[in-house]
C-alpha cells in the first residue's frame, strides 16, 4: 500500500517551515511529526509574478471538466451547514476562537481510526486517510498529500480550498493562518488529537503574528455539531495474541521496558500508540478497521503496569492473561488522573512527544507545577522557610511545568516492535504463502471472467478477492481498504471505489490492485498491475521502468546503520532517466499481525528519517508511476531485512540485504524485455521460479495451471 513519505519521515525535511527551525530533540524525533506542520499547500495555477495560487475545489473541478455534483461533500448534501454550525461555536464565551484545526488522527495519533473519530471526513466530505482541515470565520481549507490530490478534488465541496501538500509555492497551514487571520487571533485545537511536538510547533509558528493557541480540552467542536448522528464508540472484545505468534511473553517485554526506565533514570513511561500497547501486552482487538488494536493507554512503572481500557471489552481469558503479567486495569478515561497522581508523587516520566498527545503532557507539566507550589506552601505553613519553586528550579531540583521531571524520548517500544523475533517472522512468512494462494485463485478467476466479457465493477472485484482470502486459515480482515483501480482510477494513488461511481474492469487499460490481509499470524500488503488486453508501448515502457526500480531495491546490499532514504534513489533511477517519478514513499514498515503501516523505518526521498534499517525489520518495496486521468502502475512486495554472509566486512561492520516475503507473479506481457539487462531478466525468472516452488503445492486445478503459465521464463530480446 503506497504510503506518502511524510507519514514515515514526518519531519518532511524538504518542507519550508521545518527547514527554518532547529530540531527540538535528537533526529530520531523527526520520525513521526504531526502532518499539520509538514503539509504544503499547492496550486494548480500561478499568479503573474510566478507565485503559486491555491484554487478552490469548485474551480479545480471546473478546470478538469467536473461538475460540482461530482463532489461527495457538495453543499446540497449539507456541507455548508456543517461549516455554519461549527463557526457558530467560535463565538461561545467558553470557546472564543477565530479558527479551528481538525486533523485526521485520534488521541493516539493513529493513521486509521474508528468511525466515531472520523471527524475530518465528517466535516469535509473528503474520505482519504491523511489530511488536515482548517476553518476560520470565513474560509475553509484542506491539506492532503499527493496520494489524494485527485480524490480530494472530486470529494470536496465548493466551500473548501484544496491545498496540495508537497507542491512548491504556497504556505504551510501555520503560514496560511498567519496570513489570513488578523494579528492576535485565537486558534483552537483539541489537545487530545495533537502530539505534544505538533502542538508546540504550531504554538511557536503562529506566535509570529501574535496568535494564541487555545487548547480546548473540555469538548471537541466537531463532536458538538455531529451530535446524535455520531457513530457509537467501538465495543468489540479484546483477545489474547498467543505466544506461538508473539514469540516473547508479556513479562519479558515489560522487564525490557523497565530496564530502559532504569537506564534513563525514569520512574514510569506512558505508552499511547495503540499498536505499541497491543504488541507489549500480546493482545489484539477490533476497535479500528483493518488494524487489530484496541483503544487504550498503558503506563509502565518500575514495579507495576496499568492498562487504561474499557473493561467491558475484557473476557475472563484476557483478565487472567493480564493478571498473570501483573497488569492492573483502570478505565480508559482515567489516564489524566493517573498522570496527575504520578506528578504529585514526584515521579520522573518518560514521554514520547511525537506520539503522546498534548493533553497528557500538559496535564503532567501543570500537575508538577501545582505540586511544587503546594509543597512550598506546606513548608512555609509549618514554619520552615522552605524554598520557592523558582529556587528549587535554580538548584535543578524543581520543575517549571514539570520539565525537569520529564524525559522526552522516543517510546522504548517502537524499535523493539519493529525488529521481528523468530516466531513473528515464521508467522509472517506462513501468512504470506496462504495469501499468495488466495491471490493466485483470484487472478485466475478474474482473468477468465474478463476474457468471457463478464461485466465486473471495481467494487465487485474487491469483494471477490475478499471471498478468496476468507477461505484461508487464520484470515481476520483486510489490512486496509482494497485499492481497485481500472484505467484513470488507477492514477489515484489511494483510490477507494464506491458502488455508486466505480468503473467496470475491461481489457482496454491497466488495472491496479493494491490489497492486504490481517491473519492471526501476520499482515500482508501487495500490489500488482495487469492488462487483460494489449498494453500500449507507453504502458509497457512505464511498467518496465517501475519493475527495474523494484528489482534494484530488492537486490540492494548496504552496510548496517544505513537509513532508508539512502536506498530510495535505487527505486526511482530508471524512471528519472526518462523524466518520470512518483509522489509517495518507496517503502514503509509493516507490523507482525499488527498495523500495515509501521515505523520507525522507511524508504523514501524525504531525508528527515534517520532511522537505520536493521536485521529483522520488514519494509515494502513499491515504486510506481501514475499518469493523471490515464492509468496507474505500482509493483509491491514486502521484504525482510537480513544479514548477509559476504567475503569481506570493511570496517568490521555487517552488511544487510533483503529476503522476499511476497510470492505472486508479475505479469509478463507488461514487461518490455528489450529494456532489461540480462541480470534483470534473470531476477524475474528466478522470482517466478520461487513463486512456483512455494505456492503451487497450495493450489489445485485451474489456479495451479494459471500459476504455471504465469511463471514461465521471460526470454531475452535484443533492443
From TrEMBL:
Gene3D superfamilies cross-referenced by the UniProt entry: Creatinase/methionine aminopeptidase superfamily (3.90.230.10), Creatinase/prolidase N-terminal domain (3.40.350.10)
Region (Disordered): 377-398
Domain Peptidase M24 C-terminal residues, every copy: 655-714
Family: Belongs to the peptidase M24B family.
Taxonomic superkingdom: Eukaryota
GO molecular function, one term: metalloaminopeptidase activity
Organism: Eragrostis curvula (weeping love grass)
Keyword entries, A-Z: Hydrolase, Manganese, Metal-binding
Domain Peptidase M24 per the UniProt entry, residue ranges: 427-643
GO cellular component terms listed in the entry, alphabetical order: cytoplasm
Cofactor: Mn(2+)
CDD domains from the UniProt entry: APP
Identification of the protein by name: Aminopeptidase P N-terminal domain-containing protein
Residue stretches making up the Creatinase N-terminal domain: 86-213
Composition bias, Basic and acidic residues: 381-394
InterPro entries to which the protein is assigned, alphabetical: Creatin/AminoP/Spt16_N (IPR029149), Creatinase/aminopeptidase-like (IPR036005), Creatinase_N (IPR000587), Pept_M24 (IPR000994), Pept_M24B (IPR033740), Peptidase_M24_C (IPR032416), X-Pro_aminopeptidase_P (IPR050422)
Amino acid at each position: 500500500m503506497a504510503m506518502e513519505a511524510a507519514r514515515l519521515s514526518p519531519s518532511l525535511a524538504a518542507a519550508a517551515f521545518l527547514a527554518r527551525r532547529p530540531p527540538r530533540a535528537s533526529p530520531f524525533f523527526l520520525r513521526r511529526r504531526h502532518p499539520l506542520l509538514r503539509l504544503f499547500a499547492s496550486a494548480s495555477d500561478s499568479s503573474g509574478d510566478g507565485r503559486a495560487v491555491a484554487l478552490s475545489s469548485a474551480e479545480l473541478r471546473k478546470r478538469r471538466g467536473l461538475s460540482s455534483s461530482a463532489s461527495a461533500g457538495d453543499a446540497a448534501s449539507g456541507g455548508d451547514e456543517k461549516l455554519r454550525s461549527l463557526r457558530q461555536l467560535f463565538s461561545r464565551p467558553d470557546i472564543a476562537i477565530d479558527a479551528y484545526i481538525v486533523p485526521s488522527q485520534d488521541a493516539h495519533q493513529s493513521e486509521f481510526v474508528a468511525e466515531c473519530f472520523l471527524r475530518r471526513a465528517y466535516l469535509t466530505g473528503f474520505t482519504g486517510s491523511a489530511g488536515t482541515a482548517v476553518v476560520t470565520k470565513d474560509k475553509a481549507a484542506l491539506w492532503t498529500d499527493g496520494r489524494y490530490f485527485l480524490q480530494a478534488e472530486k470529494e470536496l465541496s465548493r466551500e473548501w480550498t484544496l491545498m496540495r501538500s508537497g507542491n512548491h509555492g504556497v504556505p504551510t497551514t501555520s503560514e496560511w493562518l498567519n496570513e489570513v487571520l488578523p494579528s492576535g487571533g485565537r486558534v483552537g485545537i483539541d489537545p487530545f488529537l495533537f502530539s505534544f511536538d505538533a502542538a508546540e510547533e504550531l504554538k511557536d509558528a503562529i506566535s509570529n503574528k501574535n496568535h494564541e493557541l487555545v487548547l480546548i480540552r473540555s469538548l471537541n467542536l466537531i463532536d458538538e455539531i455531529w451530535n446524535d448522528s455520531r457513530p457509537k464508540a467501538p465495543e468489540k472484545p479484546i483477545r489474547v495474541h498467543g505466544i506461538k505468534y508473539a514469540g516473547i511473553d508479556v513479562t519479558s517485554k515489560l522487564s525490557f521496558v523497565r530496564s530502559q526506565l532504569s537506564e534513563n533514570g525514569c520512574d514510569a513511561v506512558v505508552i499511547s500508540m495503540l499498536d505499541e500497547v497491543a504488541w507489549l501486552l500480546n493482545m489484539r482487538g477490533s476497535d479500528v478497521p483493518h488494524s487489530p488494536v484496541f483503544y487504550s493507554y498503558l503506563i509502565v512503572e518500575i514495579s507495576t503496569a496499568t492498562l487504561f481500557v474499557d473493561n467491558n471489552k475484557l473476557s475472563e481469558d484476557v483478565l487472567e492473561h493480564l493478571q498473570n503479567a501483573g497488569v492492573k486495569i483502570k478505565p480508559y478515561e482515567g489516564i489524566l488522573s493517573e498522570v496527575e497522581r504520578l506528578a504529585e508523587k514526584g515521579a520522573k516520566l518518560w514521554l514520547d512527544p511525537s506520539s503522546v498527545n498534548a493533553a497528557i503532557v500538559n496535564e503532567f507539566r501543570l500537575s508538577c507545577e501545582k505540586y511544587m507550589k503546594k509543597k512550598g506552601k506546606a513548608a512555609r505553613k509549618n514554619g520552615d522557610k522552605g524554598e520557592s519553586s523558582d529556587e528549587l528550579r535554580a538548584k535543578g531540583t524543581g520543575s517549571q511545568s514539570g520539565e525537569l521531571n520529564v524525559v522526552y524520548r522516543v517510546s522504548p517500544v517502537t524499535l523493539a516492535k519493529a525488529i521481528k523475533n523468530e516466531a513473528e517472522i515464521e508467522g509472517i512468512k506462513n501468512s504470506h504463502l496462504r495469501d499468495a494462494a488466495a491471490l493466485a485463485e483470484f487472478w485466475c478467476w478474474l482473468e477468465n471472467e474478463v476474457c468471457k466479457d463478464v461485466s465486473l465493477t471495481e467494487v465487485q472485484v474487491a469483494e471477490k478477492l475478499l471471498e478468496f482470502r476468507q477461505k484461508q486459515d487464520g484470515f481476520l480482515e483486510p489490512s486496509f481498504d482494497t485499492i481497485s483501480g481500472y484505467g484513470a482510477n488507477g492514477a489515484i494513488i489511494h483510490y477507494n471505489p464506491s458502488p455508486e461511481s466505480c468503473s467496470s474492469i475491461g481489457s482496454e487499460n491497466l488495472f491496479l490492485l493494491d490489497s492486504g490481509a490481517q491473519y492471526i499470524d501476520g499482515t500482508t500488503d501487495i500490489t500488482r498491475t495487469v492488462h487483460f488486453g494489449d498494453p500500449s508501448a507507453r504502458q509497457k515502457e512505464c511498467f518496465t521502468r517501475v519493475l527495474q526500480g523494484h528489482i534494484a531495491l530488492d537486490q540492494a546490499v548496504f552496510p548496517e546503520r544505513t537509513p532508508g532514504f539512502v536506498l530510495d534513489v535505487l527505486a526511482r533511477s530508471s524512471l528519472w532517466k526518462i523524466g518520470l517519478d512518483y509522489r509517495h514513499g518507496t517503502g514503509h514498515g509493516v507490523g507482525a499481525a499488527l498495523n500495515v503501516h509501521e515505523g520507525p523505518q522507511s524508504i523514501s526521498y524525504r531525508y528527515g528519517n534517520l532511522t537505520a534499517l536493521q536485521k529483522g525489520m520488514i519494509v515494502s518495496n513499491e515504486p510506481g508511476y501514475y499518469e493523471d486521468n490515464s492509468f496507474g502502475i505500482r509493483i509491491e512486495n514486502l521484504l525482510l531485512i537480513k544479514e548477509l554472509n559476504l567475503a569481506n566486512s570493511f570496517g568490521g561492520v555487517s552488511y544487510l540485504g533483503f529476503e522476499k516475503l511476497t510470492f505472486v507473479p508479475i505479469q509478463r506481457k507488461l514487461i518490455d524485455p528489450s529494456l532489461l539487462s540480462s541480470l534483470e531478466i534473470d531476477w524475474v525468472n528466478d522470482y517466478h521460479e520461487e513463486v512456483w516452488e512455494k505456492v503451487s503445492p497450495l493450489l489445485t486445478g485451474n489456479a495451479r495451471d494459471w500459476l504455471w503459465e504465469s511463471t514461465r521464463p521471460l526470454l531475452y530480446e535484443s533492443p
